[in-house]
């Protein structure tokens, strides 16, 4: 199996100086490389404060309610297990284990993302601290979600994970990934390299929830390759403050009728500096892409909400929708939608709107008996409507609680 | 004398620096349903929005009394919670806020909501939809009437419930409104008066250029308007008398 290296120069998304500044300011040497060592154990026996934080990002302690679980704290793999009934359907292990186990693993390693793409990929390559390998075997439809948690328990730690996710032909699965920190962790740097391979007729829904700390920096680097009739749904949410977050996941729709949907809910508060985008490259006939982003900025938060649609093939289509809600005069949202068509038949479209809560909507809800504050809270909560994600019931319920609390805190 | 539920006294209202209502007086007794006719731009919706307390409608003088309490300076939600319910003509769409959230705010009981939906022939699926987002004209009317009914006010205000609704749906909506108004008070704004085929009203008023030009029996006034249009109201001796009084100060 040969994967062509993506032409990053050709596909380079629109950038401005601000992103480079955001990363240039990060001095890598200031982070610790001395993690706390954790022994392997069932998740349920982890300390309560770890479990509580994990739960907030959708990772449940009851492993029986997930088809498979991967749990990493700092640089240690604490748990990786597949439920008995899914044993011959799913593989889950650390990438260090996978690289030892399978010769073919190298065909997926650093194939969608260049090792030298930036200083963070170089860091993840030179100081690699595990990460997960998940593989859904051919034609297996996994009806119960899988979960993974990347947790930081040591203050000011640098954690560099590299994840490989493979959905073999005809398979279907839903993965929930939570990234969180211990309540005592205030600063640190998480670099997460993730390479997704969605093969022909496979469907993968990947839901990631971030919950960092006010002085924490995060640099996810993700890319996906989608084969013929493959479907990749990527849901991303962040509700807690972060010092800086910068990411620009890219999906290459390489197969005929391949599809990707990026759904992002970004809530920036305190002094968060978030530069988050999604990119879709349509490379074959019938390729379809969609990016939906909801960004809310309050306090002094700055959010750059980017989207890039690249139509390389005729008879391909993609749409980008970005809505921003500004809740403070000191906050900022900069929506940057970009469309690049390189084939006559590629249909690319976008809509972007940034503004404050419409008075008209508040007054309407007041006429329905809600106080001004309740009305605003309803609107903010509605803005972060997660029903578009199609999440499993209990996960949707728990995220709705977080959204409700976030909306109430926002006002 | 019948007790007043709503009393509007000498109300003068400005919108974006322009006077829209001029010394309007209106008294609606308990159990009475009033209809407000008037040409486009005469100030009908302004009167409704002012009674509700929308801040863009600035009261320059006069007062609004509801259940014996002056509400002229109360915020919208406090007026509504006193017992005023409304069905808007052109409500905004609110992305992400589900119709069901508003309904359950007033009626937590699911069976009761189902009964209400059935009465208005509105599919349950609408409760999970964003309020008014992508709704057709008829669906907006039903959504508005549904919310108004859920609010269970003693005083119902409806802004053109009959505009843009097909005959079948008008029959359904009209029947539900008529039933809801039994034993309650209401103010219905209508342009063409179609709703009066289904709803019994006690008093009608014609609003011309921001003033109530005349009041009387709804059927009589409507037939006059349908026959001669609002041009007749402009020439009406009563209207002329009001204008003369205005000129003479």
CA gyration radius of chain B, whole angstroms: 18 Å
Order of helices and strands of chain A: HHEEEHHEEEEEEEEEEEEEEEEEHHH
Radius of gyration of chain A: 20 Å
Query: CATH fold name of chain B, please?
Result: Rossmann fold
Compute the number of helices of chain A. 7
Largest sheet of chain B: 6 strands, mixed
What is the CATH level 1 assignment of chain B? Alpha Beta
Number of strands of chain A: 20
Strand order of the largest sheet of chain A: 2-1-5-7-9-11-14-16-18-20
Give me the CATH architecture of chain B, please. Answer: 3-Layer(aba) Sandwich
How many helical elements of chain B?
9
Q: What quaternary form is this?
A: heterodimer
Estimate nothing, just give the exact number of structural domains of chain A: 2
- Strand content of chain B is 25-35%
Strand order of the largest sheet of chain B: 6-9-10-3-11-12
**Structural class of chain B, please?**
alpha/beta
Spans of at least 5 consecutive residues with low confidence of chain B: 240-249
């Amino acid at each position: 199996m040969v994967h062509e290296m993506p032409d990053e120069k050709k596909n380079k998304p629109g950038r401005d100086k601000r992103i480079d500044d955001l990363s240039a300011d990060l001095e890598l040497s200031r982070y610790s490389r001395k993690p706390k060592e954790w022994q392997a154990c069932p998740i349920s026996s982890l300390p309560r404060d770890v479990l509580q934080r994990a739960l907030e990002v959708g990772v449940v302690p009851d492993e029986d309610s997930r088809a498979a679980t991967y749990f990493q704290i700092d640089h240690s793999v604490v748990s990786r297990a597949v439920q008995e009934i899914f044993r011959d359907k799913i593989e889950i292990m650390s990438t260090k284990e996978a690289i030892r186990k399978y010769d073919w693993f190298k065909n997926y390693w650093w194939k969608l993302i260049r090792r030298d793409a930036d200083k963070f990929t170089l860091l993840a390559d030179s100081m690699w601290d595990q990460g997960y390998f998940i593989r859904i075997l051919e034609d297996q439809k996994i009806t119960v979600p899988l979960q993974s948690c990347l947790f930081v328990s040591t203050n000011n730690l640098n954690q560099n994970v590299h994840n490989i996710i493979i959905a073999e032909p005809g398979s279907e699965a839903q993965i929930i990934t939570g990234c969180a920190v211990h309540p005592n962790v205030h600063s640190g740097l998480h670099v997460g390299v993730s390479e997704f391979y969605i093969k022909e007729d496979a469907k993968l829904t990947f839901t990631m929830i971030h919950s960092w700390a006010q002085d924490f920096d995060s640099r996810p680097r993700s890319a996906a390759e989608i084969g013929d009739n493959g479907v990749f749904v990527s849901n991303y949410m962040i509700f807690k403050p972060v010092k800086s977050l910068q990411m620009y996941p890219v999906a290459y729709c390489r197969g005929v009728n391949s599809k990707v949907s990026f759904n992002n809910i970004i809530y920036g508060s305190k002094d968060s500096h978030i530069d988050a985008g999604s990119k879709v490259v349509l490379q074959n006939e019938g390729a379809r892409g969609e990016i939906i982003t909801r960004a809310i900025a309050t306090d002094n938060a700055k959010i750059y909400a980017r989207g890039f649609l690249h139509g390389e093939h005729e008879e391909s289509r993609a749409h980008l929708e970005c809505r921003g809600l500004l809740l403070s005069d000191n906050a900022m949202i900069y929506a940057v939608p970009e469309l690049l068509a390189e084939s006559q038949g590629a249909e690319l479209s976008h809509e972007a709107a940034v503004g404050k809560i419409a008075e008209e909507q508040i007054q309407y809800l007041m006429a329905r008996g809600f106080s001004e504050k309740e009305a605003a809270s309803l609107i903010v909560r509605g803005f972060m409507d997660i029903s578009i994600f199609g999440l499993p019931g209990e996960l949707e319920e728990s995220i709705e609680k977080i959204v409700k609390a976030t909306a109430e805190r926002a006002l | 004398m019948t007790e007043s539920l709503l009393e509007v006294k000498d109300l003068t209202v400005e919108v974006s620096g322009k006077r829209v209502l001029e010394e309007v007086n209106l008294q609606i007794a308990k159990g009475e349903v009033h209809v407000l006719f008037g040409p486009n731009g005469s100030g009908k919706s302004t009167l409704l929005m002012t009674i509700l307390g929308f801040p863009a409608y600035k009261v320059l003088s006069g007062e609004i009394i509801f259940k014996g309490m002056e509400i002229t300076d109360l915020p919208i939600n406090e007026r509504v919670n006193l017992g005023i319910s409304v069905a808007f003509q052109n409500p905004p769409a609110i992305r992400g806020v589900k119709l069901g959230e508003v309904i359950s705010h007033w009626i937590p009981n699911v069976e009761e909501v189902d009964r209400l939906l059935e009465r208005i022939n509105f599919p349950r699926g609408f409760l999970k939809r964003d309020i008014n987002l992508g709704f057709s004209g008829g669906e907006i009317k039903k959504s508005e009437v549904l919310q108004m009914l859920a609010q269970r006010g003693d005083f119902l205000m409806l802004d053109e419930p009959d505009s843009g609704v097909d005959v079948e749906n008008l029959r359904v909506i009209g029947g539900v409104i008529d039933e809801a108004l039994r034993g309650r008070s209401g103010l219905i704004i209508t342009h063409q008066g179609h709703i009066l085929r289904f709803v019994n009203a006690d008093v009608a008023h014609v609003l011309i250029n921001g003033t109530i030009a005349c009041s009387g029996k709804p059927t009589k006034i409507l037939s006059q308007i349908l026959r001669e249009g609002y041009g007749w109201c402009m020439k009406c001796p009563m209207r002329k008398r009001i204008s003369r009084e205005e000129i003479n100060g």
